[in-house]
Amino acid sequence: MSLLNSLVLDSGLSVLVANGNRLHICSAEPTDYATAVSLSLGTKNTPTISAIGARTPSGRKVTVSAITNGAVSANGNASHWAIVDTVNSRLLAAKPLDATLAVNNGDTFTLPAFDIGIPGPA
């Protein structure tokens, strides 16, 4: 399952570009900001999120650049990523990882680039 905050759905992907200032890798699917923080096994501050792509019949998207040096702060198995707005304490987007990632405190984590999109009108 995936999550897009209603603010992103209502106001557009610019909310992610402007406010998505931390990426968490989480041990389970977060449903809100507090859960994302409590489930976090590691973080990447200021992930690079591309400008909004052109509108197409299938919708619009942004791309989160590959993460090569995320900081791991706990041992466990990461199953989801979450992008949060730490200034306003909001979970903006979350989705399962392509594969579970075993992490150890003090290590770094990597993730390939991925897209976050809003579907076009039906």
What is the gist of this entry?
16% of the residues lie in helices and 48% in strands.
Task: Walk me through this protein's architecture.
The model has no long low-confidence stretch (mean pLDDT 93). A hairpin with a 4-residue loop joins β6 and β7. It is globular, with a radius of gyration of 14 Å. By secondary structure, it is α+β, with helices and mostly antiparallel strands. It has a seven-stranded antiparallel β-sheet. It is built from three helices and nine strands; from the N terminus they run βααβαβββββββ.
Low-confidence stretches are: none
Strand order of the largest sheet: 1-7-6-2-3-5-8
The major beta sheet can be summarized as: 7 strands, antiparallel
Taking the alpha carbons of the first and last residues, their distance comes to: 21 Å
The percentage helix is: 10-25%
- The quaternary organization reads as single chain
Mean pLDDT: 93
> Helix/strand-derived class?
alpha+beta
Report the β-strand fraction as a percent range: over 45%
Which series of helices and strands comes N to C?
A: EHHEHEEEEEEE
Characterize the overall form. globular
β-strand number: 9
How much is the radius of gyration in Å? 14 Å
| Helix run count | 3
What tags apply to this protein structure?
16% helix, 122 residues, alpha+beta
Give the topology, please.
Blueprint: E1 3-4, H1 6-11, H2 14-19, E2 22-26, H3 33-39, E3 40-45, E4 59-64, E5 67-72, E6 76-85, E7 90-103, E8 108-111, E9 114-119
Antiparallel strand pairs: 1-7, 2-3, 2-6, 3-5, 4-9, 5-8, 6-7
